[in-house]
Amino acid sequence: MTLQTSRTLRDYIRVERLPTTWCPGCGLGIIMNCIVQAVDHRGLDKNEVAMISGIGCSGRMPVYVDFNTMHTTHGRALAFATGLHTLRWAQKSHLRAREAVLAAKFELEGQTLCVLGLGDIGGTLARKAQALGMRVLGVRRSRAPRPTRT
Length: 150
Hints:
Elements: H1 6-12, H2 28-42, E1 50-53, H3 61-64, E2 68-71, H4 77-93, H5 97-103, E3 112-116, H6 120-131, E4 135-139
Parallel strand pairs: 1-2, 3-4
């Protein structure tokens, strides 16, 4: 994996975990590189960035990035990310977690979700997120168009 600058590599990647376990040419290293460069370009504090993952090859990405990370149970990454967002908001608002959950008006509409792997689970998650008004960025191995479900 090659990042644009070694500073970016030191700041955002857990270099002691390299090389990755991903197969050469699978593209996940490129996606991780793009995420890291986007965080750097936006000037985000890495302590304010959370990466939530599920299972599979893409689920290994949090191992390599030096953000707040969470490896979750099968198919529950969005639920964990929503809960984390609510609890972080509660901390900043100095509320107790229960009060925050009851008072939160976290809207999914207009938020962005990146789905790595558009198999049955990822595809279903993407469709449900779109139905909730979310912008969905999906990445899968093949360039061939995915057959639409009826």
